[in-house]
Specification:
Length: 437
């Protein structure tokens, strides 16, 4: 948390990197828009997103990456036209009545009677690096847009994606209306260009990810301390999520996947309702979000405390595939090369038909983070390495997933939950704990 965070703004953390970083990211993205627009005037609209009743609000990751602001109903406006090179941040109006329901968020503040920024607006400026004279109230959006919309050829937007039909909100309606009333303009997705920036992490981001990963490792250790036959999958989930929150994570990065027996073969199983049995394997694919950055770690445990011979054979094949992929991960190679190394190892072990998903994804502000998979890995990219073998007819699924930082010379495994089969058995052989608290 940045030293400038006002204690009263409980829900309004900045991302903890200096405002220089945010300003630098905005400049880097502007440079990319400029190059992409090929000399034509452009503007960009990056919305923070909308709050939904009784749902946890998570800001649009690109908006957050560029501003460090977590407020809903906010907009970062960037433009380069013959008349202006601008950066404007519109924040939700300060609304004490609403704050009684949902708490304080970083808001626009206003102006003093002599037209200077009041304390809240000055704070928003200091925290984002956007000059307070360029901070306004979200309702000014039409005013901000009216002139530049007549001057540009290209509009970049972070269009809301994956919105279920019943939940289409005003951002989507606004985007649709803007597009329909300006058919002569080119609308382009801001996410691709922003994603390629977000793909390579800075030091401060990597530190936050390490914090999320350390908590997630600890949650895997907590499972090892409690696991016993007869536990419900959701009891395991409770231990995981209790550990997350008690160690300072704010959320899960994705729904916890606790799949035992037949459900060890369902890749994104998140019902977590089955009762585990002696002889099962249980996949724990979990990750917390801390300071908005994600971890994603999978371990597979024998519920009885001991792998059967067959389970151990499959487990060791997956571990060898993960090691092969780790060995292949380095600057200059593509994610598909890392995958190939894992796939070759699994084929060599005779399990080719049972490995049917990709090995890696980017990790960052999102569990499946932004960035092109056609670009070679470079120092600062963080990926998962998560091969698996799923033999449904034997109710036997194994996945092992770690988070990996690409360094100048190779790759560093950033997550360290027990992974070796012998060590897992040893830890499961200790007297089981029955209570978390
Ligand atoms: N936890 C989801 C994934 O590993 O992609
Ligand atoms: Mn995972
Ligand atoms: Mn993953």
């Amino acid at each position: 948390m940045s030293a400038r965070t006002a204690p009263s703004h409980r829900n309004a953390r900045t991302s903890g990197v200096s405002t220089d970083h945010h300003a630098g990211r905005r400049q880097a993205l502007k440079d990319r828009f400029k190059a992409d627009a090929g000399g034509r005037p452009w503007l960009a609209l990056i919305f923070s997103g909308e709050e939904r009743n009784l749902q946890v609000f998570t800001p649009d990751p690109t908006f957050y990456y560029l501003t460090g602001v977590e407020s809903p109903n906010a907009l970062l406006f960037l433009a380069l036209t013959p008349r202006q090179d601008s950066e404007i941040l519109l924040l939700p109006a300060t609304d004490p009545a609403k704050e009684r329901w949902t708490g304080k968020v970083l808001s626009s503040g206003g102006l003093t009677p002599d037209c200077l920024p009041d304390a809240l607006r000055a704070e928003a400026g200091a925290r984002t690096g956007v000059p307070s004279g360029s901070i306004g109230i979200f309702q000014q959006i039409e005013d901000v847009l009216v002139r530049p919309m007549r001057e540009v050829d290209v509009v970049y937007m972070n269009f809301p994606e994956d919105t279920p039909p019943g939940q289409v909100g005003w951002v989507q309606h606004f985007a649709d209306r803007l597009r329909a009333s300006n058919p002569h303009l080119q609308f382009r997705h801001a996410a691709r260009l922003a994603g390629d920036l977000r793909r390579v992490k800075e030091g401060g981001e990597i530190e936050k990810m390490r914090a999320a990963m350390a908590i997630t490792d600890e949650a895997q250790r907590a499972v090892l301390g409690h696991l016993r036959p007869g536990m419900k999958e959701y009891e395991i989930q409770a231990i995981v999520e209790y550990t997350f929150m008690s160690l300072g994570a704010e959320h899960v990065a994705f729904p916890s996947i606790i799949g035992s027996g037949p459900y060890s073969c369902i890749l994104h199983y998140d019902k977590n309702r089955r009762t585990t049995r002696r002889g099962d394997l249980v996949i724990c694919d979990i990750g917390c979000r801390k300071d908005l950055y994600c971890a994603d770690v999978t371990r597979t445990y024998p519920v009885s405390g001991k792998f059967t011979k067959r389970q151990r054979q499959v487990y060791d094949a997956v571990l060898a595939a993960q090691e092969a992929a780790l060995g292949a991960a380095k600057p200059g190679v593509l994610v598909k090369d890392v995958h190939q190394a894992a796939a070759d190892a699994i084929s060599k072990a005779g399990f080719a038909p049972y490995f049917f998903h990709g090995t890696s994804h980017y990790l960052g502000i999102e569990a499946h983070d932004a960035g092109s998979y056609d670009l070679p890995l470079e120092p600062g990219t963080v990926i998962t390495i998560e091969p698996g073998i799923y033999i449904a007819e034997e109710e036997l699924g194994v996945r092992i997933e770690d988070d990996v930082l690409i360094t100048r010379t190779g790759a560093e495994r950033m997550t360290h939950a027990p992974r070796d089969a012998g060590e897992i058995e040893k830890l499961l052989g200790r007297p089981r704990k029955t209570l978390v608290v």
